[in-house]
Amino acid sequence: MKRKKKRIRTRWNIKVFVIYAVTLFFIIFGVKTAVVKIAELIQGRVEAQSQEETDVTAEEETEKNADFPGAPPFTVDLLDINEYSRPGIALEKINGIVIHYTANPKSTAKQNRDYFEGLKDSHETKASSHFVVGIKGEIVQCIPSSEISYASNSRNSDTLSIECCHKDKSGKFTKETYQSLVELVGWLCQRFGLTSEQVIRHYDVTGKNCPKYFVEHEDEWEQFKKDVDVQIAVVEQEVETASQQ
């Protein structure tokens, strides 16, 4: 009985302290200002906790990728956490992969990655992508596969996005870009249990002419998905081989 009374007394003391602190806060700042300040304190604490939970480093993402065989070579160069290109919000679930083109002829994968990074300072717009595939086939990962990117509008919350560089206004990919894209998408599909039917164009989400060449050449888009199917099988074989070693 004595222990129970002490616990009740302790809880009551805490309640009294909280009431006293809140009352003093209102007296010092006034009702309106106090409410605003309390809200700011709560919001700041929530945001700090959220960032701590999602602030994945390049080293951590590289290690995670290494656990899944069959990936093409790529560089992990993550954006800094910021509200314009990497909000640090967790993906609900990966239900698809969205293909884009940069609409910026002759730009490199690194240049597009750095453009996304610069948005934290320019505040020009909100944009980013999980991966960028360059004209020479180089691949840069900008955002962890566990977080959303600002690329695919209503599908940001459940898809991975891939931006592709191109040489001219036609939007057609070089052989190197195409091959790296097939290998990357095939690996991601195998890793996250997706099929080629879950690989879509930005066009399929919003009607935007993106990726331009695949929108204007439907037959090439269908061939791309067939090539992804072949690559999924290749990755599955690599995974099976790795598991037996």
TrEMBL record:
Listed Pfam families: Amidase_2 (PF01510)
Transmembrane segments: 12-31
Domain N-acetylmuramoyl-L-alanine amidase: 84-228
UniProt entry keywords in alphabetical sequence: Cell wall biogenesis/degradation, Hydrolase, Membrane, Transmembrane, Transmembrane helix
The organism of origin for this protein: Blautia stercoris
UniProt-listed Enzyme Commission number(s): 3.5.1.28
This protein's name: N-acetylmuramoyl-L-alanine amidase
Catalytic reactions on record: Hydrolyzes the link between N-acetylmuramoyl residues and L-amino acid residues in certain cell-wall glycopeptides
Top-tier EC class: hydrolase
Coiled coil region boundaries: none
